[in-house]
Every structure is written in C-alpha cells, then in structure tokens.
Amino acid sequence: MPEAKNIYRPLKATLETVIDESPLIKTLVLRPEKEFSFDTGQFIELTLNGYGEAPFTPSSSPFVKDKLEVTIMKAGHVTEKFHQLTPGAVLGIRGPYGRGYPVYNMYDKEVVIVGGGCGLAPIRSLLYHLIEWKDRIKRVVLCYGSKTPADCIYKPLFRELNSIPKFEAHRAVNVADETWDETEGVVTVLLDKVNINVPDSVAVVCGPPVMMKFATQKLLSMGFPEDRIYLSMEKNMSCGFGKCGHCMMGEFFVCKDGPVFSYDEIRHLPDIWR
Ligand SMILES: Cc1cc2nc3c(=O)[nH]c(=O)nc-3n(C[C@H](O)[C@H](O)[C@H](O)COP(=O)(O)OP(=O)(O)OC[C@H]3O[C@@H](n4cnc5c(N)ncnc54)[C@H](O)[C@@H]3O)c2cc1C
Ligand code: FES
User: How close is the Cα of 108 to the center of ligand 1, in Å?
Assistant: First the structure.
C-alpha cells in the first residue's frame, strides 16, 4: 500500500539571512529544499523542531519560488526563539494555507493600502505582486503607520515604491523625533492627505486590531463600500486547514475561509477587532 501523505509534515527550509527591521521585528530569508508557491496573503506555519510552530504570512514576492521571506515580530515564546536563529538553521514550512488577497478585483482599479506595524508583512508581498502587474492597475497608494521612526520596517521599500510610476508610499508615526520629516499622527491621518478616487478604488487593511478598526471606519466614512475593503484577520491557529477549530470566528474558519475577508463578509460578527 502506498504511504499515506502526512499533511502535518513540514518542508525543510534553511535560514540564509536575518534582516533586522526594527527593535522588535526581523525578516528571515529562507531557502526551501524545493520550490514553494503561495498566493499573496496566504499564510504558512513555520516550525522550529523542539519549540513549536506559528502562523506567518510570507512578506516576499509570490513570483519568487526558490526563496521565502517571513517577517516576524517578537510576541512570545516561539517568535522569541525565531529571533535568536542564525544563518544555517533548519526550519520547517507547512502550507500555504487559506485565501489570500483577491488581486483580480484590483484589475483596473486604484488600490489604497493601509498598514500598521508588522501588518506591512503581507502587504509587502501584495505590493510585489502589484508591481509585477503595474500595467493592469491604475494606481497604488500605501499609507503606513508605526509607533516611532525606529519601529518603521522595510525602509528601502518606501524609496523604491516612490520611484515607480503609479505607486506612492506615505508614512506616519505616532511619536516623531528629530530624525523624522514625514507625518506625525495615526495612520488614518494619511488618508486625509492623499487624493483618492473612491468610486474607482479598492482598499486593503492589515495591522493591529485597533488600527484595523479605525482604518475601516475611516474608509467607510470616505464612501468605500463594505465589499471593497479587504481585511487580513489574525486568530489563534493550530492546524491551519480547517480541522482543529482553534481559529473559528463566527461561522468562519479563519485559516480556510480567510485570513483575508471583505468587511461585508464579517461585519455582522461580534468582536472582530479583538
Ligand atoms: C494568519 C496569520 C498570519 C500571521 N502573520 C504574521 C506575520 O507575518 N508576522 C508576525 O510577526 N506575526 C504574524 N502572525 C502572528 C503570529 O502568528 C503570532 O505572533 C505568533 O503565533 C505568536 O507566537 P509566540 O509563541 O511567540 O507567542 P505566544 O507566547 O503564544 O503569545 C504571545 C501573544 O501572541 C498571541 N498569539 C499567540 N499565538 C497566536 C496566533 N497563532 N495568531 C495570532 N496571535 C497569536 C497571544 O494571544 C499573545 O498575545 C500571524 C498570525 C496569523 C493567524
Ligand atoms: S487553525 Fe485549525 S481549524 Fe483553523
């Protein structure tokens, strides 16, 4: 009898480089032992033998199959261990899982992206996708917020985006210092500064729950329809593919039905911002 496929068995991946993004956030550049494909916005389970695993959304381009970048904020036990790894370490990847960003709905549209903190990780992958597709979209406006200038991640990405026609990237920090000459304030302040043609746009929001809540309210007040605001939801997860029930949010398995939802799909649920 052929051996049954073990759906929990991870694919081996070697850590090539560690990039310090901010005091709390690092990007791990991984080389999987064979090509690994994912859709932008899908997530993986990243395993460290003997310590455990945790879900992360790849922050690299979905068009690159031989390398995978994962941007990790130190939050607790497993993420702290990932931060201590050095090049050469061997990890495991399960997935990809879930429903990513509906990039086809961004065809011929302006795409307004609101990100906060480590929520820029999945957004960076989406941006790489949209850069490849720049002939098919009208415009991309990124508004990113973090606590302080030191907490801003992917600093070179902003210069790169602002040099690409149709792309513009703006940043705000809650608390500025003498090094900062961009916006001071919460990320939604940036939405007042950019000129958005709402009827021709879709919006994407990813970040800490409180930021997602206020960004969504702001987008609704600007006239965005509920079905054109896409949110990346994070719930505690275990299996990643609809078996264990850890990630239930109302009638949805966030791991399978999400993690990307349009606001109209989930607005009826209580406590979506927790
Ligand atoms: C679909 C998805 C994609 C994610 N993508 C990223 C990413 O790209 N980068 C990143 O830094 N983080 C991401 N996260 C969050 C990341 O999985 C958690 O920070 C991580 O699991 C915490 O593990 P820990 O053992 O270090 O923390 P713990 O010691 O277990 O807990 C520390 C804190 O993290 C929370 N937490 C624990 N497990 C999870 C979990 N599975 N999901 C959400 N919160 C959790 C706990 O409630 C607690 O507040 C994602 C989560 C999901 C569900
Ligand atoms: S994580 Fe197991 S059902 Fe979603």
Answer: 34
